[in-house]
Amino acid sequence: MADLNGLTFFIKTFGCQMNENDSERIAGLLAAAGARKVERFEDGQVVIVNSCAVRAKSEEKLLSYLGRLGSWKKKRGLVIGLAGCVAQLYREKILVKNPDVDFVVGPDNYHLLPEILSHGLGPKPVITSWACDWNEDERQPFMRESPVSAYVTIMEGCDNFCAYCVVPFTRGREKFRPLRAILGEVASLARDGYKEIQFLGQNVNSYKDPETGALFQDLLKASDDIKGVEWIRFITSHPKNFSGDIAEAMARSKKVCSHLHLPLQSGSTPVLERMKRGYTREDYLGTIRLLRSLMPGISLSTDIIVGFPGETEREFEETMSALEAIRFANIFSFRYSPRPGTAAAKLDDDVPFDVKRRRLLEVQKRQKAIQTEIHKGFIGRTIKVLCLGKSKKDKRIYSGRSEGYQVVNFTSEQNAIGRFVRVRVKDSGPYSLGGDFCEEG
Ligand code: 5AD
Ligand code: SF4
Fold it and tell me: What's the pLDDT at 121?
């Protein structure tokens, strides 16, 4: 067992919730070997940068951060490890362009980090081999950021190869975690006082227990029985795999929140076809109708890409009309960015930058108005909120999330952190609700 006693480390995380959860695992592994986590890179002897490769912009942010670390390294000395999706995608090439990086480790190899840091594995190790199966023993322990809401990874990787998406090249093929291990972790989190669980995976709806063949809806049913945890959410779903059985399991469950993130990407069937998404606009609208018939008032969010190769003005208008028809509670919207190795990278990136920018602004402007209207409808209502901490803007104000995943900022005389409370909503904006503590939730 590696001994890292006396070593201090800092972790910088870019990207999605899966990366956040992986960073919690990296911190847990290093702490278990005796190292101490610090809150600023200036205080660490080692910095692990957990990177994201989903868009070119994510890589640009990483490079500028590596630049900052490089300057510090020259002044004070530092070991820099690159982890995450950029590590897996470019491997040893990273060392050529970024000589300050001391080692490169891909997502399937974090269990080796204590070894790498205690002995080193030769000059500048690059460890990016793929794991074909889930190895539960290599996945523990965690040092979690929140004492209230916990991520639980249930699968990793993706077999879909959407034309724009680099994820299958950074996270490999689908690997599923055994159901009993997932339920064991949820039960132990419940004993530790966690109130909310978020199941994670690139495509959670395709979950299949490698031991029993149980499906995602079975996982939802089984986790409903675990005492203590009150709210269960999951990301990311795929419209192609989001079945009626899953919708019904959500609706029947007492704990699964009335909230779903279901990436649409485009409202145009021909664009969806070029993206190789495996569903049409009508299929997606049908799923939304089913969800709303089973769970009236369900809060829906989505991802949108504008300017995919060949996207015409009319096709773009179909995305705008989908936003209008569905009225999402929240969206994440992006300009298409070609990624290495993907099918779309071979297409001509022919939508001019200015057109992409204008389309993105149009999407965001329309969505902002829709959210403002939806949020106004909450004024005067009393809603259940899980308080996660203090507001980022004003430390006298508490902040949490509603069941529909809206940000709710509220005043309270008593410390509400970690508790369910009822908040009377009295004001709202496009991105949050505001109100006062009413009673314990
Ligand atoms: N360009 C722009 N956006 C992308 N996404 C994934 N790949 C790309 C890309 N190449 C977006 C999708 C996905 C979200 C996580 O990021 O909308 O759902
Ligand atoms: Fe990318 Fe598609 Fe996999 Fe999502 S499902 S990660 S969009 S390839």
Answer: 63
Mean pLDDT of all residues in 113-141: 88
Strand partners, 314: none
Q: What are the pocket residues of ligand 2 if the criterion is a CB atom closer than 6 Å to any ligand atom?
A: 158, 160-162, 165, 167-168, 202-203, 238
Whether residue 185 has pLDDT greater than 80: yes
Alpha helices in 9-99 (DSSP H): 17-32, 56-76, 85-90, 93-97
DSSP-based helix, strand, coil % in the chain, nearest 5:
40, 25, 40
Cβ of 307 below 6 Å from ligand 1: no
- Which atom of ligand 1 has the smallest separation from the CA of 332? 17
Task: Please give the angle made by the CA atoms of 222, 223 and 226, to the nearest 5 degrees.
Answer: 110
pTM of the model: 0.96
The pLDDT of 81-100, averaged and rounded, is 96
pLDDT at 392: 83
Asked if 339 and 162 count as a contact pair (C-beta separation under 8 A), the reply is: no
Q: What letters, b where the CB count within 10 A reaches 16 and e where it falls short, cover 298-332?
A: bbbbbebbbbbbebeeebbebbbebbeebebbbbe
pLDDT of 123 reads 82
Please give the C-alpha separations between residue 431 and each of 361, 373, 396, 399, 404, in angstroms, as whole numbers. 16, 11, 19, 13, 13
Over residues 223-250, mean pLDDT = 96
Give CA separation, 260 vs 131, 153, 287, 295, 316, in Å: 30, 17, 11, 11, 24
Interval between CA 435 and ligand 2 midpoint (Å)? 37
Pocket test for ligand 2, best of 85, 161, 165 (most atoms within 8 A of CB): 165
Of 14, 19, 164, 266, the residue with max ligand 1 atoms within 8 A of its CB, to mutate for a pocket test, comes to 164
Residue entry with tokens 């108005």: 369
C-alpha atoms less than 13 angstroms from C-alpha of 297 in its C-beta half-sphere: 8
pLDDT at residue 140, as a whole number: 86
